[in-house]
Every structure is written in C-alpha cells, then in structure tokens.
Amino acid sequence: MNTVNCESVSLFTLTPGGQSVADRLRQVLPMECYCAEKYVQEGYTPFHGSLKLTVAEAFLRDSAIIFIGACGIAVRMIAPLLKDKLTDPAVLVIDEKGQYVISLLSGHIGGANELARYVSGVIGAQPVISTATDVNQKCSFDLLAKQISAESENFREATKTVNQLLVSGHPVGIHIDPWLEKTIGFDIHHFDIRGLTVVAEDEVEHHQLSALIDVSMQKERPRWPVPSFQLIPKRLVAGIGCRKGVSSQQLLTLFEQQIQELNIHPLALVVVGSIDIKRDEPAILHLTKHFQVPFKLFSAAALSTCSDQFPQSEFVQKTVGVGCVSQPAAWLLSHGCLLGETVRQQGITLTYGVIK
C-alpha cells in the first residue's frame, strides 16, 4: 500500500543549486517552496522572518517537510520542535546535487520512508532509510497499523515490543478475525506483513510464537497462549437521529451499550453521521469529541436517495424533510453494509455499519 502523505508539504532550499532539485519536485508534489529573500524567483516564497521561524510554522502545520541542503542544518532547525513519533511530520533531507534522499524523521507513522522512496524515484536519487525493520526487510507494527487504518489500546508499547521482536529474528504471528474476512472481505495480504506468520486461531499454540498481532474489531478476544497485541481496524460507522436537546449522557450511554452488545471495540469507530440540521446538537458533538471521530453531515436530499428502503416517520418527515435519519446516514457512510438492528430509545435512533 502507498503510504505517502502529501496533503501539505513545505520545501526549504538553502542555496541556488538546491533550487534546480526543487524545481523537479515541484512538478509532481503539491508543496510550498521557501528560500532566502535574495534567492527568490517565480514559484518560491521568502522565509517569514528567518529560516528557523518558517520551519517552526511548517512543522506545526504540514504533513511533510523537505530540506535541500546539509543534514546538520536540518537537525538544528527541527531539534527544538520534536514532540512525538506519532505526531511529528515526515522530514526529508536531500543534498543539493540530488544524489541522496534521507528519511530523517517519522519514517513509519509520518510516512517519511515511503516519501523518500517516491522522491528518489522522481529525481533519480538513492533513498537513505535507517529504520531497523526496513533495513532487515521486515514489516513494522506501526506502519501496518497505518496501512490498515487501525488503532491499538497501547500503541506505543505494542510498536516497541513487536518491532524489536521482528528485527531480532523472533517469530511473530498475525491472526485475522474470521468475522472481518466474512463481513467486509478483509484480506491481510493486501498489506505489508513481511516477517509475520499468518495463523488461524487453533494454530497459534503450535507455532512457538514470541508474540501475536490480533487483527479484530471485536472487544472480546480469545485468551491467547502468547503475548498478544490487538490491531483494531477503524471501520465502524454510526448514523444518529435524535430529538432536539437530548441528554449527552443518555446518548453516550446508549451508544456504548449498543456497541458492547455488538461486541465491537470502541476504537473501531471511525465516523458519526446525521442530518445537517443537527450540526450543533450538543449530545452528538459530545459523543464525537469523546470518541475523537469526525461528524459527517448529510442534507435531507442526500438522505432521501436511500431512505425509501427504511421505515418512515411522518413526524420526522415534517420536522427535517426526510422520513428517517440514522439508517440512511449509516447506509451512506458504510456504502450499504449495515450492522445489527436499528435501536430506538429515549428519543434517540442509532444505526451502525461497517466500511469494507
């Protein structure tokens, strides 16, 4: 899977020679190019006050930063800004002759390793990647999680433990919940699993594994005979309809009860949807903040495109312009893959779905 993240890229050239390399990259990457004011030409923006200040702004804003110049300068610029491997942007350094592309920071989660490979291909350079799993031709827990769009309860510890085992040559297995394969057609072979042994539930104890990656959206899991680390694909969606002013605690409690009955892990939730007139509904906003997921809004017209297949309410039709809300919202979010039955309680309607 391509994990290159080019949503927002800033490139810093420190010499006129570096601009020729930058010009080649500008053709294929959407990015803002910065240089000293004395070197400004078309397509370049002067540093905002200084290189240090401009880099600091980009570090907080962008998904990737590229320096064309010496590694030492790049290190000094970003050193005071470093926070966490899970949140820092990708940082690359390219020499001004375009011979080498160094993945300097956030190789896995930030996507610097893949970006370095991509950039190297564009300019005909040699990528320089030093992360242990890549050097040893093994996958990594954190990059696999990114590829799958998955979470883990103790992500940092799981990444450290699994990656150390892999690069040390210890056997690590990966089990895919059959429910995932059956429900959404999940296929682990679409992702990077180099160094892992794919095992069924009844095979785990026979492989003498040092650890197991358990890929499942379910909350309750088997008692594995080896240390296990669950990767929870974020595939659960929820459509919500509710009366105005419904209690935030009521909605949260009912929501948690229902996903527990479905045996779905809370970390599997990826998005909540409703009709656009609910954009400021406190209970739904509280729920999305609690689970740290986006709130997708649909117009009545959009919901009407699939609402006819669900039970209609005259009151809801007169109030919001469509006969039902939660079911069509979940249907649109999941592309028609609904999960369980719609729940109607205390002025709240909940419908769940799963993204394939």
TrEMBL record:
Coiled coil: none annotated. Keywords: Hydrolase. Residues 236-350 form the CobE/GbiG C-terminal domain. It comes from the Bacteria. Residues 55-134 form the Cobalamin synthesis G N-terminal domain. One of its GO terms (molecular function) is hydrolase activity. It holds the Pfam family CbiG_C. GO terms for biological process: cobalamin biosynthetic process. PANTHER family: COBALT-PRECORRIN-5A HYDROLASE. This is Cobalamin biosynthesis protein CbiG. It comes from Vibrio mangrovi.
